[in-house]
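Amino acid chain:
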Amino acid sequence: MVRWYGEPDPDTGKQKRSGRSFRQSRDAKAFLIEKQHQLDEGVPQDLPIDVTLGRLLAEFEEARLAGLSYASQIGYGNTTNQLLEYFGCTRKVRTIQQRYAEAFLATRKRRDGRPGELSSWSKARHLIHCRAIFGAAVQWGYIDRNPFSGSHVRGNSALKINPKGRPWHHLTADEFVMLLAAVPSVRQRACYWLMYGAGLRPGEAWNMMAATVDLARRRVRVVNRAPTEGLPPFTVKAEGQSVESKERTVPIPEAAVPDLTEAMRQSFKSGGFLVLTPERFRRVQEYWQLCREHQPWGGHAWRPWQNRNMTNNLLRDTKAYLRKAGVELTAPFTLHTFRKSFAQNHADAGTPPRTLARLLGHSNTRVTMQFYQKATDANEQAAAEAMNHLFDRNRRTKDVV
């Protein structure tokens, strides 16, 4: 609890006593520091600071967005632009109540010109961003309650969003072997092994260097790389986070060793990178030089370097190889499907969730559990066989007695 006295009453001379309670002591301490700062600047303590939405968004961008990734900043920018379009720059933050928050989320539409409703995932991103923005307003003393908070939601509210997972094709081991047989390049086969056999993100596979591969122990190390004049940086990311994640070591299947060995032998031609061709490596160096000089690069205006800028057209080539291999896709396929299939294979094999979360580099098991909740025919058959085995063992025990 943080308590403070307001301005003295001109008639009685008494001061009104105000207070706020917090669930966490750190939130109370942060509010106390901010309140003391306001007091030192002579801000009246009886009334909340009447800030506009434009000022709140500007202060949030300055205070909270600097440490986020480029992709996260783009996502927040999309939400803030729509908030300004809907409420206006001069709208008082304290007047944005829950009913207006629900109306804002309920009226979100696609803005790319394509038909169809906005996906639940996109609506959920808007909700997460709005909760963070107005949560900061609560911490800074601008408002007493977050209108986008879910703690007071009742009934069929737009604030109750359950994002549905997008369908994806589970690439089986047999289909993966068929794909490898259709790929002529050992570097691309090595890339597929890193994503499907070790669960690496596409950006992690493209940034893998021969020095971080230990074939003797059949392991690869996913580590951060600082930028140099000739090489761009690489930063490990975790789902649900916008800060550097923990580096990790991941085992690789024995079947991947031949392709990885040959890719390592050729890596000296491409600056030590495992899956980049020499031509692509030179193009990356060219783009990185332009990026360092804040000039347009890659056919676009200047933008910060991201892990995925190491290569291009891999998804197009992969789909062509899948067609050549005769693999029939039953759902949308992206490069991230390799990693999802890796996780689903481990979940089907009974790998503990915490172990799989560590292999995938997840910050917690919340994201990992989606693979355990996806029931398959193999899961159901294995469960039935386990129950049959249990009752058969009990029957044999009784027969012996």
Observations:
- Confidence is low (pLDDT under 50) at residues 240-244.
- The longest strand covers residues 2-8.
